[in-house]
């Protein structure tokens, strides 16, 4: 018996450079967030939200993002 296809969520990977000069690679952003006319601009808010969640868990303040770039571009 064949299985039902599952909803497959696609992610786009981004490199993030912070104002202190540090860099994080391959940050995942859901592809459906990037389908609009804004291009990659919504990725910044998604990554900032991820950083806030990480900082809450670690107890360290979030770093300010200087630049983001799509992996492979």
Order of helices and strands: EEHE
Helix and strand composition category: alpha+beta
Q: Low-confidence spans: pLDDT under 50, at least 5 residues?
A: none
Could you give the distance between the termini?
42 Å
In angstroms, what is the radius of gyration? 15 Å
The order of strands across the largest sheet is 2-1-3
Residues in helix, %:
10-25%
Can you tell me the overall shape? globular
Helix count, per DSSP? Answer: 1
Q: What is the number of independent domains?
A: 1
Strand content: 25-35%
How many strand segments? Answer: 3
User: Major sheet, described briefly?
Assistant: 3 strands, antiparallel
The pLDDT mean sits at 89
Description:
This protein is of the alpha+beta class and 73 residues long. It has one domain (11-70). Helices cover 25% and strands 30% of the residues. It has one helix spanning 41-58, and strands at residues 11-18, 23-30, 65-70. A three-stranded antiparallel sheet has the order 2-1-3, covered by helices on one side. A hairpin with a 4-residue loop joins strand 1 (11-18) and strand 2 (23-30). It is globular. The termini are far apart. The mean pLDDT is 89.
